[in-house]
Amino acid sequence: MSRKKKVKDSLIKKAKKASDKLKPTNKPRYISKADRAKEASEVGGAT
To answer: Residue 23: which pLDDT band, with cuts at 50, 70 and 90?
Structure first.
């Protein structure tokens, strides 16, 4: 692989990662087990 191709590929990879970070995700945010338990106890205790 020529040096030019290596540099070009690395720059393209870096640009692709940066653009992927800007895209919105449909995945819900992770909530830890302890936080879920605390939230459930607050909801359960209020009613």
So the answer is: confident
